[in-house]
Design brief:
mainly alpha
Length: about 45
């Protein structure tokens, strides 16, 4: 189960790093998620 979570996180990081115009919606979601995580880190 842990391996699957690590794999999903890796895919998310790759999606954030590569901003391809072909799938703008997915890139936007990835950026929003990263921004959300940044907000959580700031509140700590």
């Amino acid at each position: 189960m842990g391996i699957i979570i690590i794999f999903l996180l890796l895919v998310l990081v790759v999606a954030t790093m590569t901003n391809s115009d072909s799938n703008g919606d997915q890139d936007g979601d990835a950026k929003d998620f990263m921004g959300y995580m940044d907000e959580i880190n700031r509140k700590k």
